[in-house]
């Protein structure tokens, strides 16, 4: 059988013949774990209405996926290196698909959060496996091109998730968005056995489980703190998580420095190329995930697009990622990653700066240029960074390398949603309070409207419904005086509904502009830091001789 005869890639001296087909399987696997979050952004309003989710519930539906995903990647990447990278990929796809089915069947906030957590565990297996298998399967001369296509797939998934979810939501409920992942996972599992060669590390040393568990502790606590603190206040749990994250990180670094075979050699961060690349990935996804979080809300709530229309209008971002990826494939070998990464980060900062011009009169046309520039920026900067991070690890630690890249990505994304999302909510509430100051609207309605843009429009719709009911009663009233009073009441309520809707739209637009300014400042400062960190030459990249020796020493099963 062809499947049985597939030769372990690590044992060959020649490139694997079906490596580009294998890359397709790896990209499919990446596609669903990125789409799992972006599809949820457009399904969230329906889910909130159906399950009666509070803002805290909704936040944990989104982030219940993130905590296990970020916390487990390093340990699971090392386990995949030792035992089987392809096995880790297949097991992750099975767990992820099972979690998606669980999510489809869930009917309470607790079960949806649990299903998302199961999917997060699956993603923590899949994500580092995709990069480690890519690096093990492709020779160095082709690896940058393969990573460029891998990165472009992530950009496609960012926009494809809302499109597919929006199409499903037109005829089906929010639960159907979980099922997007199941057929793709099934195809990827079959493809993994048929097209992806077996691969694992050559050494048989024991895994540094203490270091792995410390990484789970500090990373999980850090992500929990990032989610909990900005959104829900710095209560005892958030402060406790911050303390655990800090203590856990210190213990992790000290343990890894002393261990003869650490799960992650933290001395690698002394390399400017490695440190700068990780910082760039984290900062980029802080900006991208944060901007995506509030742009999808603006398109849906303020501009009134439905889920599918919102997804379609995010497609310029995906197209620009592909264009930027092609451009970086041409430029990076000629001018070096320092310049392409710096140019990408400058472009990302420019995109956020353009969003500071958003106001109540903005239309979709005002968002096209920032989306295109942001997509170009992603394509330009991220592929060279991922290639640099993966190139810093020997063949025996490719799973760990993929986990480091993906942890930087996930920490940055979590921080972006938490910090920029929290700033957005605060700014929106403050602007709405200013816009409705002195109005005759009930205080309770104003308090409810300040919770979120969705709540604000729901309050406006509620007041409008009261106006329609008052108008209907006026028509039915037999007493002319009572009819006149009801008509006056209906007019006041209708004016209040319009005032509230206008105030909500204006407040949220102002909040988007303010949040984009802060995001642009963060990314701009980060651009300078990354430009200083990254070396002008690739002097601290791994030497080809060392890489060949590592490959020659490796075995696979």
From TrEMBL:
One cellular component term (GO) for this entry is: plasma membrane
Q: How does it sit in the membrane?
A: Multi-pass membrane protein
Protein keywords: Antibiotic resistance, Cell membrane, Membrane, Transmembrane, Transmembrane helix, Transport
Origin: domain of life: Bacteria
One short Pfam family name for this protein? Answer: MFS_1
The record's Gene3D superfamilies line, in alphabetical order, gives: MFS general substrate transporter like domains
Under which name does UniProt file this protein?
Answer: MFS transporter
Provide the protein's localization: Cell membrane
* Transmembrane stretches, start-end: 20-40, 60-80, 87-106, 112-135, 147-168, 174-195, 207-227, 233-255, 276-295, 315-332, 367-390, 511-534
Q: Name one GO biological process term.
A: response to antibiotic
Listed SUPFAM superfamilies: MFS general substrate transporter
Q: State one molecular function term (GO).
A: transmembrane transporter activity
Known PROSITE patterns for this protein? MFS
Xref: InterPro entries: EmrB-like, MFS, MFS_dom, MFS_trans_sf
Q: Which organism is it from?
A: Streptomyces capoamus
What taxonomic classification does the UniProt entry list for its organism? Bacteria, Bacillati, Actinomycetota, Actinomycetes, Kitasatosporales
Sequence ranges assigned to domain Major facilitator superfamily (MFS) profile in this UniProt record: 22-538
């Amino acid at each position: 059988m062809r499947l049985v005869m597939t030769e372990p890639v690590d044992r060959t001296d020649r490139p694997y013949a079906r490596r580009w087909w294998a890359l397709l399987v790896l990209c499919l696997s990446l596609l669903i774990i990125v789409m799992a979050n972006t599809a949820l952004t457009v399904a969230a309003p329906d889910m909130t209405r159906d399950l009666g989710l509070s803002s805290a519930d909704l936040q944990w539906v989104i982030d219940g996926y993130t905590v296990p995903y970020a916390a487990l990647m390093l340990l699971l990447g090392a386990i995949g290196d030792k035992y089987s990278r392809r096995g880790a990929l297949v097991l992750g796809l099975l767990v992820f698909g099972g979690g998606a089915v669980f999510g489809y069947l869930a009917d309470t906030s607790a079960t949806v959060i649990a299903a998302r957590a199961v999917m997060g565990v699956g993603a923590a297996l899949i994500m580092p496996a995709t990069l480690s298998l890519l690096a093990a399967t492709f020779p160095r001369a082709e690896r940058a091109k393969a990573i460029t296509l891998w990165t472009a797939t992530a950009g496609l998934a960012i926009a494809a998730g809302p499109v597919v979810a929006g199409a499903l939501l037109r005829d089906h409920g929010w639960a159907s968005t979980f099922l997007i992942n199941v057929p793709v996972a099934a195809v990827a599992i079959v493809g993994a056995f048929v097209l992806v060669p077996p691969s694992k590390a050559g050494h048989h040393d024991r895994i540094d489980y203490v270091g792995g568990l410390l990484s789970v502790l500090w990373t999980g606590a850090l992500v929990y703190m990032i989610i909990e603190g900005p959104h829900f206040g710095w209560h005892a749990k958030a402060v406790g998580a911050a303390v655990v994250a800090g203590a856990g990180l210190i213990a992790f670094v000290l343990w890894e420095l002393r261990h003869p075979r650490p799960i992650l050699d933290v001395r690698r961060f002394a390399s400017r190329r490695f440190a700068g690349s990780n910082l760039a990935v984290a900062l980029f996804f802080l900006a991208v995930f944060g901007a995506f979080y509030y742009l999808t809300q603006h398109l849906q709530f303020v501009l009134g697009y439905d889920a599918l229309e919102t997804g379609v209008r995010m497609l310029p971002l995906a197209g620009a990622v592909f264009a930027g990826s092609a451009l970086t494939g041409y430029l990076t070998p000629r001018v070096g990653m320092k310049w392409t990464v710096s140019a990408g980060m400058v472009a990302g900062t420019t995109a956020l700066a353009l969003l500071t011009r958003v106001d109540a009169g903005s239309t979709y046309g005002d968002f096209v240029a920032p989306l295109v520039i942001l997509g170009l920026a992603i394509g330009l900067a991220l592929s060279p960074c991922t290639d640099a991070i993966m190139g810093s690890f020997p063949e025996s630690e490719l799973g760990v390398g993929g986990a480091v890249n993906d942890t930087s990505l996930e920490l940055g994304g979590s921080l972006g949603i938490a910090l920029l999302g929290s700033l957005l909510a605060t700014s929106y509430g403050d602007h709405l309070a200013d816009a409705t100051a002195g109005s005759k609207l009930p205080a309770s309605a104003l308090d409810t409207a300040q919770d979120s843009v969705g709540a604000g429009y729901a309050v406006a719709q509620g007041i409008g419904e009261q106006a329609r009911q008052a108008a209907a009663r006026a028509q039915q009233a037999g007493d002319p005086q009572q009819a006149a009073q009801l008509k006056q009441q209906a007019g006041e309520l209708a004016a209040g509904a319009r005032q509230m809707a206008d105030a909500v739209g204006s407040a949220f637009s102002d909040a988007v502009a303010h949040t984009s300014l802060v995001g642009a400042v963060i990314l701009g400062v980060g651009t300078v830091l990354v430009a200083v960190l990254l070396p002008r030459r690739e002097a601290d990249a791994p030497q080809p001789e060392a890489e060949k020796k590592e490959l020659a020493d490796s075995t696979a099963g």
